[in-house]
Specification:
Blueprint (H helix, E strand, L loop, with lengths): L19 H14 L5 H11 L5 H13 L4 H44 L3 H31 L5 H14 L4 H20 L1
Helix pairs in contact: 1-4, 3-4, 6-7
Length: about 190
């Protein structure tokens, strides 16, 4: 029996491109699950569940979003939606990511203004904060893995340099980035050539 698709068995299949509705619903799901931060859920969905991106692609896009103005994860939403479906994809992803949480937070804000002094509510919020911190640490650990899989290159040393300069020596972040961003780009270019 002949293959009617016209593709040879050795050709890789084209990567799956989600529809506008899938983008919207994926980001709605992320925001519903994302108490304390949506980065862990976004990475899990895109890399592990849907396989819309590789771990390296996710890290690269997230690194780009770190340098754009505004919240990193909102930037990631727009960049990802744009990569998948252009400007309308960015709008679908952005709407899925922000419309429901905005409505929910307005409602929660009104309720918190009314009942924020209740001691049980404070304990619940402390528990949620601890769980969110654990999710963030676990996601950071997963994001570090691709840096070490291809052998130890310059990336971990740049990360340690930034952590030492900002966290230990208390140098201004702007000056550290002004020096280490060009160094990091040069090192990445040198390693990949």
């Amino acid at each position: 029996m002949s293959d009617t698709t016209g593709a040879s068995p050795t050709e890789p299949s084209a990567p799956y491109v989600p529809s506008h509705a899938e983008l919207f619903l994926a980001f709605v799901k992320i925001t519903v699950m994302g108490f304390g931060g949506t980065l862990p859920w976004t990475r899990r969905m895109f890399v592990e569940e849907k396989r819309w991106m590789t771990a390296e692609e996710f890290n690269d896009v997230y690194a780009l979003c770190q340098f754009l103005p505004g919240p990193n994860i909102v930037n990631l939403t727009a960049v990802f939606g744009s990569r998948m479906r252009g400007a309308t994809g960015a709008l679908a992803a952005w709407a899925g990511f922000l419309v429901l949480p905005f409505a929910l937070m307005v409602t929660v804000g009104v309720l918190y203004a009314q009942y924020g002094d209740v001691d049980a509510l404070r304990r619940v919020l402390i528990g949620i904060a601890a769980a969110a911190a654990g999710l963030l640490i676990a996601t950071a650990a997963k994001m570090v893995v691709p840096l070490f899989t291809a052998g130890i290159g310059p990336a971990p040393f740049v990360v340690l340099g930034v952590a030492a300069a900002v966290g230990v020596m208390r140098w201004p972040l702007l000056w550290v980035l002004a020096v280490l961003v060009p160094v990091s780009i040069a090192l990445a270019w040198w390693v990949r050539r």
